[in-house]
């Protein structure tokens, strides 16, 4: 089992793209871990929402809709240094296999802070039928 990791710091209201596509589409990925960390832990109040999509996004918000079949993962991190329990984190990700780029969005509901993310993807080999299904699923989900 090959694990690839990706990490970065994403600004409030930003969209990052992790390039995963290949010419053949024979390599697939599945999210196995997702972590988030405030850019200055314990310094200021922040409420971060990170979402990972299988198709490009044009807008960023903090609404999480698990009925959206393009949503691969969502994470929420509340950091409040003034409370007895200063941090709350919720991370949910799908077990779906994808073979195209993924797109990460971030919104800080209470301010304009950036957040760090860390994602681990399991790399899987796809046969021709799995490759076709994964690619067509992404194409079908792109809104024109």
| Main sheet: strands, sense, barrel | 5 strands, antiparallel
Helix and strand sequence:
EEEEEEEEH
Overall average pLDDT: 87
What would the principal axes of the Cα set say about the shape? Answer: elongated
Radius of gyration: 16 Å
Cα(first) to Cα(last) distance is 36 Å
What is the structure about, briefly put?
The chain is mainly beta.
Explain the overall architecture:
- This protein is mainly beta.
- Helices cover 10% and strands 47% of the residues.
- The longest helix is centred in the C-terminal third of the chain and has 14 residues.
- The model has no long low-confidence stretch (mean pLDDT 87).
Keywords:
mainly beta; 144 residues; 8 strands; 5-stranded antiparallel sheet
SSE order and pairing:
Layout: E1 2-10, E2 15-18, E3 27-38, E4 46-53, E5 71-79, E6 87-93, E7 102-108, E8 115-125, H1 128-141
